Amino acid sequence: MNNTYPLIIVCAGAHQPSLYRLPEILAEYSEHFFIGVDRGALELVRANFPIDLGIGDFDSLAHREKLELQEKSKAWLEYPSAKDDTDTEIAFEWISQHYPQSDICVFGAIGMESRRLDHLIANLYLPYQPRFQDLFDHTYFVEENLRMAWYFPGDHILQAGPVLPDYLSVISLTPVKSLKIEGAKYNLASQDFDFPRALVSNEFIALNQPIHLSFKEGLILVIWMNEEERFV
């Protein structure tokens, strides 16, 4: 967490983003900047949050909704529907130019009832793009009962969070070298994987006992998850 810079809240367009979780996150930062991506701008307003920037093609909004959101947004960047980047990619490109050092918290990029599997996969693939990799050192996605973050090679400390999650899954998205997990219920001695591997359903031993994750090559996705609706 780096609260020296404003926290960037991105609300994408997945169905029913879990914005009720935002107050606990906002409390950790003195400054915030809200970005509504396409229909995510409408979700921010419905949840009584401001829109510092509305961005996207807004093709999922009715004309009346779009006009209302434009009036409520401090800034508005509208793009044609026929374009090379997704709306979320456009938002991350904007962040890379204006707030490259800020922590980024993304709602509505996954969706627990995803109606667009293609968009879900596109969002999960964002860290593969070289232009976004620096941002994903300090980006995490949030839904109602999960949190996910991406990790690049190095030594990392994984904290449980405000409550002890039911599960912690370590998922390699590429081949990895010297992957090691220490301090968890199920530890892993240094091991190479020549293909992506999902090491799911691990657990924290205690709320105040972090898990140490390290590896030398590759890309790792970590998911904190509860079976019931509890913050992680």
TrEMBL record:
GO molecular function, one term: thiamine diphosphokinase activity
Gene Ontology biological process terms from the UniProt entry: thiamine diphosphate biosynthetic process; thiamine metabolic process
Residue ranges occupied by any Thiamin pyrophosphokinase thiamin-binding domain in the UniProt entry: 154-221
First-level EC class: transferase
CDD domains recorded: TPK (cd07995)
Annotated SUPFAM superfamilies: Thiamin pyrophosphokinase, catalytic domain
Entry keyword set: ATP-binding, Kinase, Nucleotide-binding, Transferase
Pfam family, one: TPK_catalytic
Entry EC no(s): 2.7.6.2
Family annotation (NCBIfam families): thi_PPkinase (TIGR01378)
Designated name of the protein: Thiamine diphosphokinase
